Each structure stands twice: as C-alpha cells, then as structure tokens.
Amino acid sequence: MSITSTAAAGTPVCRPSVSRGGRRSRCAVRAQAAGDGGAAADGASSEQKSLEIMRKFSEQYARRSSTFFCSDKSVTAVVIKGLADHKDQLGAPLCPCRHYDDKAAEAAQGFWNCPCVPMRERKECHCMLFLTPDNDFAGEDQAISLEEIKEATSKY
Amino acid sequence: MAWGASLPPPTPPVRHRTAAFALAHFPPWPSNIMSSNGPRAACCVRLVSFHPLRSPPRLPSSQIPQTMAAAASRHLCSATALLSPSAAAAPIRQRVGYGYGSSSARRWAHRPDAASRIRRLTTRSRTARVSCAYSTGAEAITACSWNQNVICSDVPVLVEFWASWCGPCKMVHRIVDEIAGEYAGRIKCYKLDTDDYPQTANSYNIERVPTVLLFKDGEKIHSITGTLPKAVYVRAIENSFLQQ
Q: Would residue A97 show up in a list of annotated catalytic residues for this protein?
C-alpha cells in the first residue's frame, strides 16, 4: 500500500492574469544573463555576482508577481544560494528543490529554470521562494539583503 | 563498537528517553566498562554503563552521580531534553572514577557539544546500570548502507531525500531530527543527499525534494513530498505502528 500526500505549496489558485504594473508582463522579470563571459576568471567574484543577480531577481519577481518570501528567511536565502550555484555551474538558475537525472539537460530545456513554468502559470513555487499571501509560510517581505543571505548560508 | 560492555538481557521497550526513567527499568547489576574505541559510530539507542571502579566518594547516596556520555553522530542537530545542564557535568567529572572508560568519556566530555551528551543521574546504589536511549537526530545514509539500514530494518524507517541548497529541506531536516529524538528506538530516521546518491533517488522516483519516505519491512508505505506540518509526519509514523 502506498499513500501519497503532497504539499500544496502555492495553492493552485488560478487567477485571471491581471496586467499589473502597466506595460510589462509579469513574466518579463528574468534572471539576467548579465554577461557571464567572465569565463570563470575568478570563481569567488563570479559566485558573488550570481548571488547578487539572483537576489535582485528574486526581489523583483516577488514584487511583480505579488508573492512574498518565506517567513523563515533562511529558506529564502538557501534557495537563492542554490539558484546562484546552478547559474554558475549550469548557466541557468535551475530550481534547487528538485532531483534531476541530468542537470545540464534540464537547464537547457528550461522548464525548471527559475521562474519555472508552474510558477509563471500558477504561482506554484514548491521551493517556497515565492509564496502567495494565503500560504501559511508566507512572510511579509519582498526584499532580502545580501548580508542576510550570506549569514544564513554560512551555516550550511 | 565497544560501548556497552555487557548489554542487559531482554530490555524493556526502549521508549525511555531520560536516564532516570531508564534506571528504573534496569536492575543495578555489577558491570564493567570496556574501552570504547569507536565512539563515532552513531546509533539512535545506545546502552552505556559506567561503573565507578575506583573507590567512589562517600557521599550521601542520593548525590552519587553517574555520568555518561552517549556516542553521537558527527553533527548533532537536535538534542532531547537533558537531565542536567553542562554546568553540573564539570564537577562530576572530577569526582567520579570512570574505570577503564575514562579516557574516552573525558574526550567526549570536552567536545563543544558535550553538554548535550552528558547526563547526570542520581542513584541509590553504587553500581548502577544506566541506559541511555539517546538520539542525535537523523543520520546520513549512503547507497551502500541502504539495504542494511532501510530494507532489512526491523523497525519502520523514515528517510528524507534532500538536496543541498534546497530551502524547504532545511525545514524538514528540523522536523525529522525532532522526530528522530521523539521516536528514538521505535523508528530509525535517515537523510539521503540525492546529489550524492542519484541512483537511489531515481529508483524511488524522487523528483521533488524534500521527499520523506516511510518504510516498513523494507517496503515503502508512505511518501510525503514538500514541507508539511510535523503532525503529518507523525501521523504517518503512528499509522505505520498500527498496521501490523
């Protein structure tokens, strides 16, 4: 016998897509490639750069999608760090909360690159990075500082 | 693993989590301590006995302390409630002879997180058998030890599949560690890094992490994906006890 329960992280509330904030659609916010031709000159600085890119992207995307970070900001910080790591390694911010057979192929395919398709379509982020206000874990913030991220991720 | 020199015959169900409770269940048999060479091996339940071989101090019987250190896994994620704070442990170390086990016990006692491993116990008899059912949170598991620890386990096994830099996994870690403490001896809790052991993750069709699987008699009986309240995990475990 096998029972399966699944968290409804980001309840599938299908709202009509209201064109918030004027002309730009909410899918417009993407992690910028930001000239990653650094050719891994120095790993540390490119790591920092990706972290900053992903941090800014997360803040921006949260605002544009009217979602909020987790009330436990260390979750947010860890996920942003994971996205930044994937961006460094794979060239795309692949969702760190999944298990993939072939990460490079997934990153190229793009379904699970942040913001992933379920997030864009239904505001479902099982990584708990972008939480709709009705989610139990949703906090009040749409901003996170680089220091917060570094502090939270230094523990792991 | 030479911790418990002589384990007591048929032990009562290992549900006790405080040493005092444990003591009530074990007769004070004479026992010896053997040196412990492998304190790193982690186990949810460890039976340890310390026998003050050198003349124990003439204290009122209620003050004769028995201190013990439990072996622990390399990272101590959550500790169960302790009988005594670390402050009590320091003076005790000087007063009690540990017999042959002293070196190892002291070594452990000096570790930074020793406070959570040392327990003080007052006892009526000079020689007390002390059982310490101590959990150190969920252990990491490898693909190699999978068969032995999960499939061949005679108690239900909870395995959390996680990945590095997965935020929700950190939350589930805490829950699983708490559960490991609360159900020490009744179930086993493990964590498996899906990046390190992708074959295992693939064979159980793990897609999203964190995913918690509950095994009983080597069979997957429940799967919990995502971050859910602790009650959900607890309910699954309790159900697994009911299904005989």
A: yes
**A-chain residues within 8 Å CB-CB of B227?**
7, 9, 128, 137
The two tokens of residue B166 are 């997965």
Q: What is the pLDDT of residues A104-126, one digit of tens each?
A: 999 999 999 999 999 999 999 99
**Cα–Cα distance, B105 to B53 (Å, whole number):** 14
Nearest-5° Cα angle at A79, A37 to B175: 155
A72/B225 Cβ within 8 A: no
Q: Of B59, B78, B65, nearest to B19 (Cα)? A: B65
Query: pLDDT tens digits for B170-181?
Result: 999 999 999 999
Between CA B30 and CA A105 the distance in angstroms is 64
Q: How far apart are CA A75 and CA B42, in angstroms?
A: 28
The CATH number of B137-240 is 3.40.30.10
Angstrom distance (rounded) from CA B163 to CA A83: 12
**B74 within 8 A of B139, measured Cβ to Cβ:** no
**What ipTM does the predicted assembly reach?**
0.74
Q: Which H or E element spans position B46?
A: strand B46-47
- What phi and psi values does residue B151 have, to the nearest 5 degrees? -70, -40
- Contact B93/B107 with Cβ under 8 angstroms? no
Among 3.90.460.10, 1.20.1250.20, 3.40.50.2300, 2.40.70.10, name the CATH number for the domain at A47-155: 3.90.460.10
User: CB-based contacts of B147: which residues, under 8 Å, 6+ apart?
Assistant: none
Taking CB atoms and an 8 Å limit, are B225 and A7 in contact across chains? yes
pTM of structure: 0.59
Kindly list the domain boundaries of chain A, sorted by start residue. 47-155
